[in-house]
Design a protein that fits this description.
Largest interface: A-C, 71 and 70 residues
Distance between the termini of chain B: 59 Å
Radius of gyration of chain B: 18 Å
Shape of chain B: globular
CATH topology of the domain at 423-546 in chain A: Methane Monooxygenase Hydroxylase, Chain G, domain 1
Number of strands of chain A: 21
Oligomer: heterotrimer
Largest sheet of chain B: none
Shape of chain A: globular
Strand content of chain B: under 5%
Largest sheet of chain A: 6 strands, antiparallel
Number of helices of chain B: 7
Number of domains of chain B: 1
CATH superfamily of the domain at 423-546 in chain A: Fumarate reductase/succinate dehydrogenase flavoprotein-like, C-terminal domain
Number of helices of chain A: 15
Helix content of chain B: over 70%
CATH class of the domain at 423-546 in chain A: Mainly Alpha
């Protein structure tokens, strides 16, 4: 008997979306793959440093348990431990799969995969392809999906924007509405299961290390349709980024992994403050710890370079040919964008918004609370708890795709999907989106959408990043409400129906503002310090009150977020204080 | 798998290099005899006449005319596929790429005239044998002289640059260093051949 | 004059409303700031879409994602040359800065172009390693680290299209597949599993519009923003197809 064929819609063609797509194709079903851009240009390719997997090929007796424990500990005990364990166990198999697919991993002299150090882990555990690991992994999956495209199982809708999901009478997700970014055509698509894999919401913060396409608009859209958002307040600030006016460009943690040192001048002498503050891990403390230290040195001790918010990241003591082999790509990038050679002079860096640990709440099989709608990749909240370890993002993205893909088929086959969606329902959903878009085209106020986005970024960057203060967060929420109101006063200059990027951005911006409120409100409510979330008023972790998953729901009437907390599984490792000044004790 | 395109391209390459290149070298060699004066040049022509007529004609048709027609006609097709952009990308090799095509167009027209007039009309139809004196009186016309000298330069460049691209197309010279060395050697050879050409053509005028 | 140039940056942008519309140019002036690049400038224009002579216009349409020179999206013709707009620093460009779409590809709108032909080419050359599936099979084969390094270099190709735009033999007038896809075929031929399909890829490249259309202008290697040694690998593929041709003749 031939296998039943289902139609799965995957929104987002990054590492997770492509991995899910592959799994679905291998199970014999069809995928409609939607993406803002050719999937080969997805943001996964910006990941530089590597992907964690316990390969244990460096004589360090690394173990999967150690990887699991590092991840949970690094995440300050807020991640679902069973889910994390699954991920760490699968990691070495994923690496072998990628290797077979042709990822040009950096190799040792005898031809096996080389491993490097990364933050928050004492063992060498990070597989890497120079300093462009994400690019290489993404390309491998892109190539495999292309194979399935040739076979006819995948239909790509590139340059299509996801607008919203379509639910049937029983509230089960049965399709999506999307818009072509060129022809502006809005269409409804049927689906047996929908997987959202649209990545992080970096653009909510304006300048960040994310691509311009990472605006979290899709996540916000499903949030407004009833999906829970989990742990959104946990926004990772990457300690080492090149500050820029258009974006902050990431300078990989691999720099520190390969021996880079962070310092500033103090009393006329270099002060390696991370090494001094955290002797056990030194420059390789997790990102939240490093970011806070740099923030403290610059903002409170006023020791930034020339009084500006910058510190040195120094590689100049490492031999140039070694650097070339291990970090070539990113050093070239620094030279190109800054005009100085990091092989000779220390780089100037500052922390920047980088990754969202939180996102759409999912269960361990990546179902959201909306039946038929799944989420995987950075846009879900699983695996990283309160802080993500470097090189775990590529892992979680790829791994979550291996779960969500097969499960999408399983749901399509056995889930309680309720009534078939009718043509009328599809048309109604489509028409609502058409009406919304047409009304955007008519907007005629004094505000410019891009300037408003800039303001949103400024507010979020100022109040909701490294140090959070309740009073400021309250103020920030008020500001966000004002910005949301001002959104109505936007005027569009482009009223055409062809490749109208401005009008689409107007729609995205509204989603971004609503998501900004989610992050801010959740941050306001969590009165403790945990992982990336730090409040001076509440400097310690409060397991009793807050070792819980934050759940944010959309209030359709007030348009405001509603915060609640639920329990999660932390049965495997007993929580212990997180202290990187001393070696980790299990 | 037949891959007609592949074989046509390679044939185009090889007949340009061997047949037409050989023909060019023969011309330069024979004509350089003019440096020795009328007697030497005419003697060289007479030596060639020793080849039995049917064989000579066979060579002319099989090894020259057919390869030329193929190289020329297929070359037109190739040249038409280029949008030249030396304005934006003024690298040496891009100029060579452009010159390769410019010289081709010039030579195409020139050779029709040259072969048509000297080989087919003068030698073939009128039956006048080619001699030092004939050539001398022919190119004493300054316009013809200039057109001929341009044609020789064009042919020499086209041939020498053709050797460079031949080495790339056939995968003989792979790395940038060897490609650069071959390019320079070929251009030096072109220069030398051009000088020889100027010398013997100039000698007619003295 | 020089003083004035420091404070503002002038752009002359070639615009086009749709695929079949006629192109026209508009001039924009934006405030100068250090380390400004072309994408950041275009973003500035989005915030205030007014031409130099004060006309309010629709903001310029273009494509960009990563702004770190890895995604390949923002390729356009800047002062006559194809390159990534995100790393085109204003300080290093002659003003007024001319921006135009890469017309080797169909223009969608303004600077936005349709590069789907490049992705189609990757299908044509079978640009993937034929694996049985994503499931566990056994250990992946050990690879020569030097070969892997070459593969890594080629695998940086971000399908931006600079080499195609710079190549005089690629464009609407020709069916040449272009340097990038040809060299990608070599990438897969290098892989210990990918090389099983080497013959297929080479035979594809021997077809019409394949590597034989390369005219050795060598612009590609100059234009490649990732410094991939394209001409070297093209010569290698040339060598490989010649060997393949002999096999095709004598082995069957």
């Amino acid at each position: 008997m031939a296998k039943a064929k289902y139609k799965i819609v995957v929104v987002g063609g990054g590492l997770s979306g492509l991995m899910a797509t592959l799994k679905i194709c291998e199970a014999g079903s069809d995928v409609d793959l939607f993406s803002y851009c050719p999937v080969k240009r997805s943001h996964s390719l910006c990941a530089q440093g590597g992907i964690n997997a316990c390969m244990d090929t460096k004589g360090e007796h690394d173990s999967i348990y150690e990887h699991f424990d590092d991840t949970v500990y690094g995440g300050d005990f807020l991640a679902d431990q069973v889910a994390v364990k699954g991920m760490c166990e699968a990691a070495p198999k994923l690496i072998k799969m990628f290797d077979r697919m042709g990822v040009p991993f950096t190799r040792t002299a005898e031809g096996v995969l080389d491993l490097r150090n990364f933050g928050g882990q004492k063992n060498k555990r990070t597989c890497f392809a120079g300093s462009t690991t994400g690019q290489q992994l993404l390309y491998a999956l892109d190539e495999q999906v292309r194979k399935w495209e040739v076979k006819g199982n995948v239909k790509k809708y590139e340059f299509w924007e996801f607008i919203k999901v379509i639910k049937n009478k029983e509230g089960v997700c049965r399709g999506i509405v999307a818009q072509s970014m060129n022809s502006m055509e809005i269409k409804a698509f049927r689906a047996d299961t929908v997987i959202i894999a649209t990545g992080g919401p970096g653009q909510v913060f304006g300048r960040c290390t994310a691509s311009t396409i990472c605006n979290g608009s899709a996540v916000s859209a499903v949030y407004q349709q009833g999906a829970h958002i989990g742990n959104p307040e946990f926004i990772q600030i990457h300690p080492t980024a090149i500050p820029g006016s258009d974006k902050n460009r990431l300078m990989s943690e691999a720099c520190r992994g390969e021996g880079g040192r962070i310092w500033v001048y103090k009393d006329g002498k270099p002060w390696y403050f991370l090494e001094e503050m955290y002797p056990a891990y030194g420059n390789l403390v997790p990102r939240d710890v490093a970011s806070r230290a740099i923030y403290d040195v610059c903002m409170n001790q006023h020791l930034g370079i020339n009084g500006e918010n910058r510190v040195y990241l120094d590689l100049s003591h490492i031999p140039a040919d070694y650097l070339e082999r291990k970090l070539g790509g990113i050093l070239e990038m620094y030279s190109e964008f800054v005009g100085k050679d990091p092989r000779k002079v220390p780089m100037e860096i500052y922390p920047s918004v980088h990754y969202s640990m939180g996102g759409i709440w999912v269960d361990r099989l990546h179902h959201t609370n909306i039946p038929g709608l799944m989420a995987s990749g950075e846009c879900d909240y699983q695996y990283h708890g309160a802080n993500r370890l470097g090189a775990n993002s590529l892992l979680s993205a790829a791994y979550s795709g291996t779960i969500s893909g097969p499960e999408a088929i399983n749901w399509a086959a056995t889930g309680d999907r309720g009534s078939e969606i009718t043509d009328e329902e599809l048309e109604a959903a489509r028409q609502a989106c058409v009406d919304q878009f047409e009304s955007i085209l008519k907007m005629d106020g004094p505000e410019n959408v891009h300037r408003l986005h800039h303001e949103l970024g400024d507010v979020m960057n100022k109040y909701v990043t490294i140090e959070r203060v309740n009073q400021d967060l309250d103020y920030c929420l008020e500001e966000l409400k004002k910005i949301l109101k001002r959104w109505n006063d936007i005027g569009v200059t482009d009223r055409g129906h062809w490749a109208n990027q401005e009008a689409m951005f107007v729609r995205q911006l509204r989603n971004m503002i609503l998501y900004a409120m989610v992050v801010t409100k959740a941050a306001r409510m969590r009165d403790e310090s945990r992982g990336a979330h730090f409040k001076r008023e509440f400097p310690t972790r409060n397991d009793e009150r807050f070792m819980k998953t934050t759940i944010v729901d959309y209030n359709t009437e007030t348009e405001e977020p509603m915060v609640s907390y639920i329990e999660f599984d932390h049965s495997l490792v007993k929580p212990r204080p997180r202290n990187y000044a001393v070696a980790k004790k299990e | 798998m037949i891959n007609t395109t592949f074989y046509l391209r390679r044939l185009h390459s090889i007949c340009g290099l061997l047949a037409l290149g050989g023909m060019l070298m023969e011309h330069i060699f024979t004509n350089s005899m003019a440096l020795g004066g009328s007697a030497v040049f005419n003697a060289a022509l007479e030596t060639m006449e020793l080849i039995p007529k049917p064989i000579f004609l066979g060579i002319e048709v099989g090894l020259i005319a057919v390869p030329f027609l193929f190289h020329g006609i297929y070359g037109i097709y190739i040249a038409l596929q280029a949008k030249n952009n030396t304005g934006s990308y003024g690298y040496a090799r891009n100029w060579q790429f452009l010159l390769q095509r410019c010289t081709a167009w010039y030579l195409l027209v020139f050779l029709i005239w040259h072969v048509g007039y000297l080989r087919i009309f003068t030698k073939g139809i009128s039956g006048t044998p080619i001699s030092y004196e004939l050539v001398q009186s022919y190119i004493s016309n300054p316009i013809i002289f200039v057109l001929y000298i341009i044609a020789m330069f064009a042919a020499i460049f086209h041939f020498c640059n053709g050797i460079t691209t031949f080495c790339m197309t056939w995968g003989i010279a792979k790395g940038p260093r060897i490609q650069c060395v071959i390019d320079k050697l070929c251009m030096l050879m072109a220069l030398a051949l051009c000088l020889v050409t100027v010398a013997y053509m100039g000698s007619y005028l003295l | 004059m020089a003083e004035q140039n420091k404070q503002t940056v002038t752009f002359i942008i070639e615009r086009q409303d749709g695929p079949d519309s006629k192109p026209y140019t508009q001039e924009f002036e934006i405030p100068y700031r250090p380390a400004l690049n072309v994408v950041a400038s275009l973003m500035e224009i989005q915030k205030n879409p007014v031409t130099k002579d004060g006309k309010k216009v629709a903001p310029v349409v273009w494509e960009c994602n990563c702004l770190e020179k890895v995604c390949g999206a923002c390729m356009m013709v800047i002062n006559g040359r194809a390159r990534q707009a995100c790393c085109a620093l204003i300080d290093e460009l002659e003003q007024p800065i001319h921006l135009a779409p890469a017309r080797t590809f169909p223009v969608i709108r303004d600077l936005l172009i349709d590069r789907s032909v490049m992705f189609e080419s990757l299908k044509r050359i079978q640009g993937w390693v034929e694996i049985d599936g994503t499931w566990e099979v056994k250990d992946a084969p050990i690879q020569n680290p030097y070969t892997a390094q070459t593969a890594y270099e080629i695998s940086h190709c971000m399908t931006c299209g600079c080499c195609l735009e710079a190549c005089p033999n690629v464009g609407p007038q020709s069916d040449f597949i272009g340097p990038a896809p040809t060299v990608q075929a070599y990438l897969f031929n290098l892989h210990p599993l990918g090389k099983f399909d080497k013959e297929k890829r080479l035979n594809t490249l021997m077809e019409k519009g394949g590597i034989t259309s390369c005219g050795n202008s060598q612009n590609c290697v100059q234009a490649c923003p990732k410094n991939i040694k394209l001409t070297t690998y093209l010569a290698q593929v040339n060598r490989d197809v010649n060997k393949q041709a002999l096999k095709n003749i004598f082995n069957k």
